[in-house]
Amino acid sequence: MIELDNITIKYGSATVIDGLSLTVEKGExxxxxxxxxxxxxxxxRAIAGFIKPSSGRIVVDGEDVTSTGPEDRDVGxxxxxxxxxxxxTVFENVAFGLRVARKSKAEIAQEVNDTLNRVGVFExxxxxxxxxxxxxQQRVAIARALVLGAQVILLDEPLSNLDAKMRETMRSExxxxxxxxxxxxxxxxxxxxxxxxxxxxxxxxxxxxIEQLGTPREIYHQPATENIFRFIxxxxxxxxxxxxxxxxxxxxxxAGTRQCFARPEDFVIGxxxxxxxxxxxxxxxxxxxxxxxxxxxxxxxDSTVLCDTxxxxxxxxxxxxxxxxxxxxxxxxxxxx
Length: 337
Ligand SMILES: Nc1ncnc2c1ncn2[C@@H]1O[C@H](COP(=O)(O)OP(=O)(O)O)[C@@H](O)[C@H]1O
Ligand SMILES: [Mg+2]
Fold this sequence. Notes:
Radius of gyration: 25 Å
CATH superfamily of the largest domain: P-loop containing nucleotide triphosphate hydrolases
CATH class of the largest domain: Alpha Beta
Number of domains: 2
Strand order of the largest sheet: 6-7-8-3-9-10
Order of helices and strands: EEEHEEEHHHEHEHEEHHEHHEEEEEEE
Structural class: alpha+beta
Mean pLDDT: 92
Largest sheet: 6 strands, mixed
Shape: elongated
Bound molecules: adenosine-5'-diphosphate, magnesium ion
Helix content: 25-40%
Oligomer: single chain
């Protein structure tokens, strides 16, 4: 278990992390999600011991490691750019930490080969990093973090240098390895889909503070703020005036001067019956064929909303009327007022 207790980190006079606390449970896949510059790498480096917080405590498995150097913390780290030694072979890269720990030659050979096997790059053991693909370098970086037997692994945007297909493959492999070895993982990314797919828990970081902490489903379906609603998925807006025009006086009053948000995929084509549904009379402004889905731009009263629909739906005629329905629980109201 990792506990950050009221951590503040400064570079000179600039406060990057401001009184942040969080707990990562044993065996949990925990993601720090946030846009570039929000302090993710800084926080990860503090957990690894490369940066000392100016105040607060870091506790790993009940032991206060706030003042412990990185070599004495039982954590493996995978850096954003892999940081492999370019002049060493794959084998030597992975063996490095074991040599530093003064293990015997036989032990080193066995543990390195085992680990290379586990992550699937055994046949490349004698190559240099420059002779490997991005995905293979990624595996070597993971092997190097795993070989020391740490139960905690820290990963800093480990997929950002890979192409889209390889990112998806490595994404599931990272999750598989974490599960297989029961590792506690702290994963840093700016990619919300990566965070949703991989994580048990996500902390959304904004300006060095946690804006929301929750499971992927909580973060996606119950975003705490408009900012997170927009960041974690797509957002479209309905005005209170539109709701009023629809005869939804209670909803309109509840919204007041604030905005009502929904996700494009929450609109359903057609008129649904039952008190849980809002029925909306839309006019089709445009439609866009996307292969597996279609995106409609709809005019509902004075609001323009986006609606995604899947299945073999016929192109609706621009200008035609189109009934759509939205579950009331899928409408969220944010803003001051
Ligand atoms: N060594 C450093 N010295 C001074 N400022 C830094 C240093 N490293 C990062 N920063 C600043 O701290 C903030 C957070 O950086 P970082 O943790 O790298 O963000 P992220 O990983 O989320 O992109 C940024 O504004 C960055 O410019
Ligand atoms: Mg970073």
